[in-house]
């Protein structure tokens, strides 16, 4: 059997921590920032943990 290839698009978006958690950036902070409030852009900054339901699918894409 061939090896499972890493999905490169997913690997660029998802970071794996030392303990095995998956982290992602929040969506909506790439463009059109001028019309978004400072309060909203601050809220969208930083990383968050991936939702529990999505973890098995993303781990498969990452080859974990």
TrEMBL record:
Gene Ontology molecular function: structural constituent of ribosome
Stated family: Belongs to the bacterial ribosomal protein bL35 family.
Pfam family, one: Ribosomal_L35p
Example of a GO biological process term: translation
InterPro entries: Ribosomal_bL35 (IPR001706), Ribosomal_bL35-like (IPR021137), Ribosomal_bL35_sf (IPR037229)
UniProt keyword terms in alphabetical order: Ribonucleoprotein, Ribosomal protein
Record has Ribonucleoprotein as a keyword: yes
Native species: Umezawaea tangerina
GO CC, alphabetical: cytosolic large ribosomal subunit
Protein name: Large ribosomal subunit protein bL35
